[in-house]
Amino acid sequence: xxxxxxxxxxxxxxxxxxxxxxxxxxxxxxxxxxxxxxxxxxxxxxxxxxxxxxxxxxxxxxxxxxxxxxxxxxxxxxxxxxxxxxxxxxxxxxxxxxxxxxxxxxxxxxxxxxxxxxxxxxxxxxxxxxxxxxxxxxxxxxxxxxxxxxxxxxxxxxxxxxxxxxxxxxxxxxxxxxxxxxxxxxxxxxxxxxxxxxxxxxxxxxxxxx
Length: 210
Ligand SMILES: N[C@@H](CCC(=O)N[C@@H](CS)C(=O)NCC(=O)O)C(=O)O
Fold this sequence. Notes:
The chain is of the alpha+beta class. It is built from 7 helices and 4 strands, in the order βαβββαααααα.
């Protein structure tokens, strides 16, 4: 089995390096650097037409979408670790929360980032975005009330997938009022596999400034 991760600095491909470190798998990293516009360099399009990170080559096929890649790696190589039993009701929740960060949480957080960076002046859009962000962060904060991890209080791929978005919100000071989320990010960043993924992946900072 060979795994090659096309990794962009300060990006969601960090999730894949972290997942591979948790799983203890060997892999190769191909490094890409964001351009001044923050876009990925064009040559990543030679691997996948969207030209986004992550893209992962596993043996003879190519996969994009971090949630799908994390889910696939854990199911194929995890030997039961980092996911609940498929026959349990927790599995349904696990899949839901595995895809929630990219499907629902990421869009308002990205809107908020653009409002901060550009800046955007439209008050209606700013108010709408603020309300969406608060709705989502309160929801996730509630999920973590009284527990360290999202599913059955055990570390899983869903925690790994969520962390990037919360780190992004945290970089803008957005987790100040969400104590469960602040503690969650610290807990995830303290994991040895996470630390190794940072050592191998290089620059990782989500405090984007124009
Ligand atoms: N939903 C996709 C998002 C992929 C994505 O937008 N990646 C960003 C980095 S975080 C990217 O490649 N940005 C550079 C660009 O759009 O040119 C995933 O989770 O993999």
